[in-house]
Amino acid sequence: MSGRLTVIGLGPGNADQVTPEAIRAVTEASFFYGYKPYLDRLELRQDQTRIGSDNREELARSNEALAKAAEGHSVAVVSGGDPGVFAMAAAVCEAIEAGPPEWRSIELAVVPGVTAMLAVAARIGAPLGHDFCAISLSDNLKPWELIELRLLAAAGAGFVIALYNPISKARPWQLGRAFECLKAILPGTTPVIFGRAAGRPDERIEVFLLADADAAKADMSTCVIIGSPETRIIKRGDKPALVYTPRSATGSRK
């Protein structure tokens, strides 16, 4: 007997940004696995069960959820943002690949959500208006040397860069080091957006120039977007400035 596993993206934290598809998927599942703060965002019925775990237990969580689904249950694994962006969808796929053969027959669905860089970009204008990439600064699953290589390659190619997992108590230095790397390639006038908790009551969106960017402005609830040399800031008097990257590009680094 095989059940169903749905990986659900809950968006960045604003209930209005949870998709109808995600809401419907929540109503259809019986068991919910996830990081406890994400599970706390769900309004579940009495016949639905939460199984919370720590943020760094993705693979163990996936294994537990798949084992429950293999028993014939309807199971959900929840993620903040989009489950396919540095989140649970990849962990579930890894668990399926390494797990017992019967897990491959489980019905699997991934429900997308609004990821942090999209929520932050929408609050400030259109910084992702041209080519962009996303890089996680966490070195838990990859070496820091590879992160630096990717930062330099992306900046050198003119991508706007969205930084996930920019800083934590265990990794207080990486964002500052990332800024140092980027300053060697990008002009100091490049806009840098610190987008914390976009769409939530404690939201804070700030814009600085790369030359003045201070890593201490970020925490693990922050997505940092670093513009390309062509990204622009539009001053609007008493209204918040707009930051956007033009739809066309010249390749200029000035």
Radius of gyration, CA atoms, in whole angstroms: 20 Å
Given the C-alpha coordinates, what overall shape results?
Answer: elongated
Q: What separation lies between the terminal Cα atoms?
A: 62 Å
- The helical percent reads 25-40%
Number of helical segments? Answer: 7
Number of strands: 13
The class by helix and strand makeup works out as: alpha/beta
The percent range for strand residues is 25-35%
Lateral arrangement of strands in the main beta sheet = 3-2-4-1-5
Encode the helix/strand succession as letters. EHEHEHEHEHEEHEHEEEEE
**Biggest sheet layout:** 5 strands, parallel
Low-pLDDT ranges: none
Write down the overall mean pLDDT.
Answer: 95
Description:
With 254 residues, the chain is of the alpha/beta class. Helix content is 27%, strand content 26%. The protein contains 7 helices and 13 strands. The strands form 3 sheets. Strands 3-2-4-1-5 form a 5-stranded parallel β-sheet, sandwiched between helices. A hairpin with a 2-residue loop joins strand 12 (232-236) and strand 13 (239-244). Helix 3 (58-70) crosses helix 4 (88-98). The longest helix is centred in the first third of the chain and has 13 residues, at 58-70. It is elongated and about 55 Å long.
